[in-house]
Design brief:
Elements (H helix, E strand, L loop, with lengths): L8 H4 L3 E5 L4 H12 L3 E6 L12 E4 L5 H7 L6 E4 L7 H4 L5 H22 L3 E7 L29 H19 L3 E7 L2 E2 L12 H11 L5 E5 L5 E2 L2 E2 H12 L7 E3 L5 E2 H12 L4 E5 L13 H7 L7 H20 L1
Helix pairs in contact: 5-6, 7-9, 7-11, 9-11
The structure holds nicotinamide-adenine-dinucleotide (NAD).
Length: 335
């Protein structure tokens, strides 16, 4: 691991960022964004990004569950640390129950280590990526009218252990911020999607999974959807998510705050959108599968009020880019 240059920083005004989870979907895109903004970036992950070269100035491979490793990578008071590393995936990963202990243990260990070490080293600002999965199941039973306002998080009743770990870690970051000088920013992401995300690893989410199924199926064929497809969700394109993250990080608002889209759609509706993008007419077969809550939508009132931010592009625009990228992966993998 190369040491970051320290001489002349103050003169040049250069900012240093550490991105944990830089080999993952959002982390790898965030590295590219921070580089474009002029940051010197150190990325950390168990693995390199799968689909393109990292743009990070340094990329360190290692396990953030190990406190000694965390101490090595937080070797200076970074201006900004983005903690995105987590053991996570889509419904097929977090709602089956099979990965519950790993999800809770691994992600909690990463957060316990990182927040404490960043605090000790005097990091200026730390971003934590929480999730819409912290919201209580009892407020998301009606697919047409879910309640995901920030203050509705309590009394807590997330629908997965993944959500419970996120809620615990949110509280831990806020406790560190109250008891120390660490400045934290917390976002609750709602289904972020786009090119270069998991699409066939078992960790993919609905947009990528539907794009893959449609791309793999010849016109007139059949695809499977978990459940009756009437469950609702909203999906935020990666570039919009990065705008929200950077806006939150530059603000004086701690959060937790939703970063998501409020363009709610049923899974059947999303499948129809992908078919229309692909120019295919396919039959949907509904099968049993892990589902999560019945309805979910981002409530953007708080972020609009505090940060003046809201997504700008319709879902279809991001889905077009994601479909074309996924279709290319399918073609490459069958070549
Ligand atoms: P991702 O799985 O693509 O990225 C997470 C990265 O963390 C992976 O590259 C993984 O290798 C790395 N990681 C896991 N364990 C590690 C360890 N012990 N040491 C080092 N690295 C480790 O996920 P993503 O979609 O990019 O999500 C990023 C963050 O945002 C996660 O914290 C996730 O929970 C949160 N989030 C994402 C979404 C979404 O829709 N993508 C929604 C809500 C919250």
């Amino acid at each position: 691991m190369g040491l970051l240059r320290k001489e002349g920083d103050a003169v040049s005004g250069r900012k240093y960022a550490l991105v944990c989870g830089a080999g993952g979907f959002i982390g790898s895109h965030l590295v590219t964004r921070l580089k474009a903004e002029g940051f010197h970036v150190r990325g950390v992950d168990l693995k390199y990004p799968e689909f393109s070269e990292t743009r990070a100035d340094e990329f360190v491979i290692g396990d953030l569950r190990d406190p000694a490793f965390c101490r090595r990578i937080v070797d200076r008071p970074f201006h900004e640390v983005y903690q995105l590393a987590a053991d996570m995936g889509g419904a097929g990963f977090i709602f089956t129950g099979e990965h519950d202990s790993e999800v809770m243990h691994n992600s909690a260990m990463i957060n316990l280590n990182m927040v404490d070490i960043c605090c000790q080293v005097g990091v200026e600002r730390m971003f934590y990526s929480s999730s819409a999965c912290i919201y209580p199941e009892y407020n998301q039973l009606d697919p047409d009218n879910p309640n995901c306002a920030e203050e509705s998080a309590y009394p807590a009743a997330p629908d997965s252990e993944y959500g419970w770990e996120k809620l615990f870690s949110e509280r831990m970051y806020m406790a560190y911020s109250r008891n120390n000088d660490l400045c934290v920013r917390i976002a609750r992401f709602h289904n972020i999607f786009g090119p270069e995300g998991a699409w066939n690893s078992g960790r993919e989410k609905a947009p990528a999974a539907l794009c893959r199924k449609v791309a793999e199926t010849p016109d007139g064929g059949e695809i499977e959807i978990w459940g009756d497809g009437k469950q609702t969700r909203s999906f935020l394109y990666i570039d919009e998510c990065l705008d929200g993250i950077r806006r939150l990080m530059d603000s004086d608002f701690v959060g937790p705050v939703n970063i998501g889209s409020d363009e709610m759609i049923t899974i059947n509706g999303l499948a129809g959108m992908v078919m229309s993008i692909a120019g295919k007419s396919l039959t949907i077969r509904h099968v049993e599968g892990p589902l999560g809550v019945r309805g979910r939508n981002s409530d953007n009132r708080l972020i609009e009020e505090r940060l003046g931010w809201r997504p700008t592009a319709p879902l279809r625009q991001g889905m077009e880019k994601t479909y074309h990228w996924t279709e290319q992966q399918v073609l490459n993998s069958s070549a």
